[in-house]
Design brief:
The chain is of the alpha/beta class. It has one domain (6-51, 88-201): Rossmann fold (3-Layer(aba) Sandwich), CATH 3.40.50. The protein contains 4 helices and 8 strands; from the N terminus they run E-H-E-E-E-E-H-E-H-E-H-E. The chain has helices at 31-39, 133-139, 152-165, 185-195; strands at residues 6-11, 45-50, 71-74, 77-80, 106-110, 144-150, 169-178, 199-201. Strands 5-2-1-6-7-8 form a 6-stranded parallel β-sheet. A hairpin with a 2-residue loop joins strand 3 and strand 4. Helix 3 (152-165) packs parallel to helix 4 (185-195). It is globular. 45% of the residues are buried.
Length: 202
Amino acid sequence: MRPLTDALLVIDVQNDFCEGGRLAVPGGAQVVPVINGLITEFQTVVLSQDWHPEAHSSFASQHPGRAPMEMIELAYGPQVLWPDHCVQGSTGAAFHPDLHRDRAQMILRKGTNRAVDSYSAFYENDRTTPTGLDGYLRNKGITSVTVVGLALDFCVSYSAVDAARHGYTVEVLTAACRAINVAGSLEAAMGDMTAAGVTITG
């Protein structure tokens, strides 16, 4: 069992990010058994859940003439346009059915603001609006965070970098992650995490 000061942060292991989903990450479901094994090692487990209202501003369907995976500028900066995914209450937004959810002390829903996306479990994409996760972890006495889930090059990496910036010791286990890799996003994410002091292990 890991020390009480260690937490496992499981990012967005949801149906829409797994095979057959609206924004399927290649090999997404393969992380589930690996994460289930990790969950038994930690006494603090947090699950994040993408939870978008319909007609979210990050959906390509809301921008006539635009296609999924295109990049646009929104009020808060650059934003990838995604297929409609993880809509609140939908089957796609539900956690993968094989994920062991019962040991989680907290489920953090993000991306709930129609006007702003949220990759990181710590901040919305305006980079100033906190989700409350940092306060929760600090109140629990957490000093070290292990980050796993989907997708490595977006929500996992953003969460890991923000955790490091908040002063946590951060490890990303790539065996428990999968990436989308859009236009070099995986290479960029690995560089960002390394620069932030995140430990990346297989």
